[in-house]
Amino acid sequence: MIALGVLLLAAAVLILPDIARGRLREVSQPAGGETATVVAAEQDPHAVPAALDLLAACLRAGLPTATAARAVAESAPPLLADAFRRGADRLQLGADPAEAWRALGDDEVLDAFSRAARRSAKSGAPLSDIVAELAERRRADAEDHAAAAIERAGVLVSGPLGLCFLPAFVCLGIVPVVIGLAGEVLSGGLL
Hints:
By secondary structure, this protein is an all-alpha fold.
């Protein structure tokens, strides 16, 4: 039993530093330029909702849709920024607003934004309200994903804790009791 605990501890000491170094390499990107900004934007779950909120604020302030989309594209995550620029370019070239926002990309956010923009163009509903609602939904999804990750971490932590504490409990709690009882039984204390 003790040998198994020592073996698991040795395996953890040998394996975990390599995993930590790999994660450190993933997180530490070369500082400077667009690469660090792109990596940070992809890792931030609130980058897309923030960009959508900014677009809604620009639209509420009275900016034309093309101007607002181009302004937000400067600080939006790369995929969303490209879609905003394409839509703004189409609008500035005189495309119908319902057609300008068609086929922005395969991403779920882009598809939802495209549908919302086309629906707003056809119905006349303010795009700012629809975009703000979409941002709120994305923010709630990000919070749900974070809560699920936290719950998964709690479950994953219980495995190593069980591997560490169970052998200690057996060695320090159960074994002395069994040895004590065995000593009494073998010495004739229960006859």
